[in-house]
Design brief:
- The structure is a single chain.
- A two-stranded antiparallel ribbon has the order 1-2.
- The chain starts with a strand and ends with a strand.
- The protein has one domain.
- It is of the alpha+beta class.
Length: about 70
């Protein structure tokens, strides 16, 4: 049976819950970029992605695969 290889990007949506060692005032004083860095390091991505919802799938390219 002929086959093609499909390449692209899938965007996932995940829920997360983490505790960080900041007061509300300290957290709000941080830039959104710094907050994202802290959250990125604190989130267990393997666990979060187990229950992910596919938000979008883009196909960038596809081509015939030689058997």
């Amino acid at each position: 049976m002929p086959k093609i290889k499909v390449e692209g990007t899938a965007t996932l949506k995940v829920n997360y819950s983490v505790s960080v060692n900041y007061t509300e005032e300290q957290w709000e004083a941080l830039s959104w970029k710094k907050q994202n860095e802290i959250l990125d390091a604190a989130i267990d991505w393997s666990d979060a992605c187990r229950n992910a919802d596919v938000d979008d799938i883009d196909v960038d390219d596809y081509f015939k695969v030689e058997e």
